[in-house]
Sarcosine oxidase subunit gamma (Paragemmobacter kunshanensis), 188 residues
Amino acid sequence: MADHRLKPITPLGHDVPHSVTLGPVTITEVVDTALASLAARMGEGKAVADIADAAGIPLPPPGKAAKAATYATFWLSPDMWMVEAPFATHEDIVAILKPHFGETASITEQTDAWARFDVTGADLPAMFERLCNFDLRAHGPGSATRTVIEHLGCYVVIRAEGHLSVIGPRSSAASVFHALETAARSAF
């Protein structure tokens, strides 16, 4: 039998998460988060909400994100959310969530489909007005949306003042990172 020595790499192809600081902005590749989409099945919205509440999984309204002790979530569409949890304890996030929800929800593994970049620093609105149509000045912490960055469908989640996440397709991670770097260079 072959002895395969596989080694995980980040979405940008590195051994460890890549980070760059450009002026007052730091862009960091985040790889320690497990992701799953959670969609209530037809007629099961109330049951999913009750189960999520009991399991400590916040289900925010449209345009919002929320964080609890273990799980963080952001709204995707009616009765659908992206669930985030620490990768170290939730590597198989679907197997952890499925027993809670049973047949009331469809849960799909998303961890390897997306690349997350955290952007921190002062005056992020100046940077993001060059990137997308999500007006950071009009939205505060706990806001989230799907938008287009560099012709790619991405999610932007405002985690705190001066800290947000851009979650884009893993297959286009280098393009998303390049767009973030270019916007930071031109803004500052």
Remarks:
- Residues 173-187 form the longest helix (15 residues).
